[in-house]
Amino acid sequence: MKAFEAPGRTVAPTTDDLFLGGALTVLQPRNGYRAGTDAVLLASILTPETLGLGAVLDVGAGVGVIGLCVARRCPSARAVLLERDPVLAALARDNVQRNELTGRVSVVETDLARATAALEAAEIKSESFPVVLANPPYHDDRRSTLAESPLKAVSHQMPDDLLDVWARFMCRMAAPGGRVAMIHKADALSRILETFEGRFGSIAVLPIHARAGEPAIRVIVEGIKGSRAPMSIRPGLVLHTPEQAFVPEIEAIFRHGAPLPPQYRG
């Protein structure tokens, strides 16, 4: 097992996980942050045809699964992975190299709330990305028990008011008319809509259900910078059959790198 070290913190061992049916191999901390279903689903809203030669910014990229999935599925796409934690950023860089994507994927290590200097050093301009994606931390650290692992706590717990910081940064980096998308817990929908208001229009909400007939567990919220078009709610996406297997269209996303079916994406 490979150990990754950062000032004051070491993460070891890692696991070597397969994504997109083995088309992507990703090192992750065994006991820390674990990317999975949410990251792959968010990446699947894009297709090679709709993205073309465009660049994608993966905000709070962790080990890089979202941006790497986009780059693997869309052969002409470029991706920038922005991650503040030095351990996760180190893993992301290694994942870019081991998947032979160094020509199209780069990692910027910085806190999005203080990113200006790092972005300038990387020659990345504001309002330059046609697509900005984010999978923010899901838990409010004022209302939940802190994770035992410091890395897991950083990755999965965030004060609720920081969601506005994420939305502001996404707006800053999206090009005029650019597309942003965020996946989050379903109960955060009202807060997401509040932070998107005044920044994005043509907002589309995709509810995600573990099984048919159950409440949504996640939402993907998309918006267009500068648009004034009204909000829409897409048909609910169901992940599992009653027997706990993935439904066929979800199996195709996870095992074969397919995009979301058209009715679920813009």
UniProtKB/TrEMBL annotation:
GO biological process: methylation
Domain Methyltransferase small as annotated: residue spans: 41-145
Record InterPro entries: DNA_methylase_N6_adenine_CS, SAM-dependent_MTases_sf, Small_mtfrase_dom, tRNA_Adenine-N(6)_MTase
Keyword list, A-Z: Methyltransferase, S-adenosyl-L-methionine, Transferase
GO MF annotation list: N-methyltransferase activity; nucleic acid binding; S-adenosylmethionine-dependent methyltransferase activity
Protein name, as recorded: Methyltransferase small
Phylogenetic classification of the source organism: Bacteria, Pseudomonadati, Pseudomonadota, Alphaproteobacteria, Hyphomicrobiales
